[in-house]
Amino acid sequence: MFALLGDIEFTVADGIAGMEQRGTVDWAEHARIKGKPLLERVGDGLDEVNLSIELHPKLGDPEKRWRALREAKSKHEPLALVLGSGDYLGPHVIADLTLQHRRMSGTGQLLSATVLLSLREYTGAFTRKVLAKPGLINPALSGTPAAAAGTPGLLSKFMPSPSTTQLVVGHAKTAANVLQAGKNLYDQVKSGNASMILGQVPQLLGLTVRAIEPLQNLTEAAGLLQDGADLAKLGEDILGSVSGARSSLDPVDLGNIVERFAASRESLDQALTTMDGARPRLAGLAAQVLTRRA
To answer: Alpha carbon 178 to chain centroid distance?
Structure first.
């Protein structure tokens, strides 16, 4: 995960293309009869964070993601901003939301675009919602004045290591996001000719590589759970399908790419189907985290 704004999660796999942080200081300028003006510090300016987000079907549903951002802006509420590193940047409001269209369908449906999201620091009264995100919350701080105020640094400085259950849920979610992004790309490529498909092989292989690490981590973490044998087996099965998708595309040439691509796509579909089948089990673990039971 790259960052979390309220309950909106941003990941590189979802299209985060860039981030800019800006801080200012306000100075008053006093003219003098002789010599240069004198500067006097008035106070610190509001911090600003600017995000650039690419919307494309292979990264998720563009319309759905754009709608989520618009709804958050329309509520006019400050939202907690937390980086994936665990650093809490404090409450921010959506100050500007710009959609730069790249491609539209013949019926006006959004196909690809760039979103420019500008956030400004909020210094008013703010009660931070406690979110059960692995690696972002220190349960010991829940209900304390410091947690309510959202004091910067508490999360990153005094945060204990996430529980094994949190790790399992987090790795599973990361793997699922990558697999879904892979399926979206495969669906985009499948209608192309052999030459076009061959040109997309490096990107397809890159997606399969990105799925390997979270699946390995899922298998390892699940093996540490008392009742995690089924999830460890799940990770191994999905990893096997992803490895099959990768091996089908290496090596390939113009003569065999169509057949190899079909086999690779079938393996990736199987990986995603297996992951989808585990959603109830993973939802149960997530519920345990939410209720502080794991």
So the answer is: 10
φ, ψ of residue 23 to 5 degrees: the values are: -130, 140
- Find out whether 48 and 118 touch, Cβ atoms under 8 Å: yes
Q: How does pLDDT run across 138-166, given as a tens digit for each residue?
A: 444 344 444 444 444 444 444 445 678 88
Instruction: Examine the domain organization and report whether 120 and 188 are in the same domain.
Output: no
How many CB atoms sit inside 10 A of residue 253's CB? 9
Number of domains in the chain: 2
- Is 149 part of any domain? no
Distance CA 241, CA 231 (A): 15
Nearest to 117 by CA among 13, 16, 1, 12: 16
Burial 41-68 (b: 16+ CB within 10 A, else e): eeeeeebbbebebbbbbbbbebeebbee
Q: What is the CATH number of the domain that holds 90?
A: 3.30.200
Q: Find the DSSP H helices in the chain.
A: 62-74, 145-149, 154-158, 164-189, 194-199, 201-222, 229-248, 257-277, 279-290
Annotate 95-147 with DSSP letters as a single string: EEEEEEEEEE-TTS-EEEEEEEEEEEE--S---PPP---TTT--GGGTTSHHH
Q: How confident is the model at residue 292 (pLDDT cuts 50, 70, 90)?
A: low
- State if pTM tops 0.85: no
- Class of residue 34 by CB neighbours under 10 A (exposed 0-12, middle 13-18, buried 19+): exposed
Domain membership of residue 254 as a residue range: 164-290
Do the beta carbons of residue 215 and residue 238 sit within 8 Å? yes
